[in-house]
Amino acid sequence: MMDMLPDAIIQQILSHISHARDVASCSCVSKRWKDCIPYSPSLYFPRNAFHSVADADAIICRIVSIVLRLEELVVYCPFSTSSLASWISLHNSSLRILELRMDNAVDKFFGSEGNGDRVDCIGAAHNLEALKLWGVSLTRSPNWGVFKRLRTLEIIGAALCDDAVKDTIKACPNLTDLALLSCDGVTTLSIELEWLERCRLDFLGPGNCSLSVSSMRLQVLEIQGFSWVRVNKNHKLRSLCISKNTGRLYGVDTGKLVDLEHLSLRGIQWSWNAISSVLQCASDVKHLVMKIEFCGDFETLQPFPEIDLVEFFNNHPRLKTLEIHGAMFAALCQKNSLKKLDSNFVIPNLEEVLVTVRSPLNAEQKLNTLESLVDFSVKLRKMVIRISQMKNCHETADDFFEEICRFKHLNNDIVHIE
């Protein structure tokens, strides 16, 4: 049926094919189809697409050289530095999206000393709008010049150093999206980008790494692995996620979070000053996740101090969803936390609650807290109690579970047990 279509429509149809194997197959169908392949704007070469490294390098070069105006190039299989330089040289004015998987083992196969030269090659693609690099080594600053049109930069699984990251970001002054994921080697990271809207940072290891972010347009910030966090007060943050899976988080300075809707605080050990500072600044937050195990500034792991339930919800009147882990819930369940409850108190906007209970200790107070959340939340639609991770196998755990089941039976439309 396609033989009946005009050439322009066949070109348009085949231009949506980017997978290297499909492109090669199309060129074998007929001369007419083969003549359309040079008009493909996008090429994708998956990992293990070829039998050997040498085959991959040669075939990629041949297919890339056929295309007249390449806009998007994604290469996950091995390639040499010289090949990359030739691809970029051939399409440096048209290339908009570039995604590459770097591999030091490939450098050794081609007799190259490292992938620093391959990173430098990218600088010739001066019209790039999106750049994504996997497994790259940025232990020295890349020789890029300035990417004036680059809006999205993602670096994944990289070995970094402070100066190299600083110069890399400096070469991309107009970024709106920045992601540095599963990276290691940085002790201090400072990001100052005028147009930055979304930033994701995931750094490995328990080290004391500090972060400073400054952008007046920043809306989404997701970070993991930093011990000190500072966000310039002139921002428009709507979503903030801070995690510290190893080591301790000592301090967070964000300024008033007036536009914040989603807040997630996760980790093993945070300074209580850092926790309370963020909660005070995020008084207008609508969706809150608290999954921090312990507080304490030093080696000693300490429980959360007592949190007054009435004060907490009065300070966060717009809260719609709340997810709290064992430590935060335990802090809300101390003997004095419900003393300020009276008939005038209401939780005005809370609709969903997810509570993870890790211990049957202080069972009566925990049940009283759960009952208070149901009784005083005028808009509550769903409460999930997650108790499958309870560590205590003593009979008190069975008694507590029976009480939870009784509580669910009394509030069957709202309460659910996992």
Describe the structure.
There is one protein chain. The chain has 418 residues and is α/β, with parallel strands linked by helices. 29% of the residues lie in helices and 26% in strands. It has a 15-stranded parallel beta sheet. A four-stranded parallel beta sheet has the order 9-11-13-15. The chain is elongated and about 80 Å long. The N and C termini lie far apart (55 Å). The mean pLDDT is 88.
Summary keywords:
418 residues, alpha/beta, 4-stranded parallel sheet, 29% helix, elongated, LRR_dom_sf, F-box domain-containing protein
- The overall average pLDDT, rounded, is 88
Strand content: 25-35%
Q: If strands are numbered along the chain, what order do they take across the biggest sheet?
A: 1-2-3-4-6-8-10-12-14-16-17-18-19-20-21
**Count of helix runs:** 13
User: Which residue ranges are poorly predicted, with pLDDT under 50 across at least 5 consecutive positions?
Assistant: none
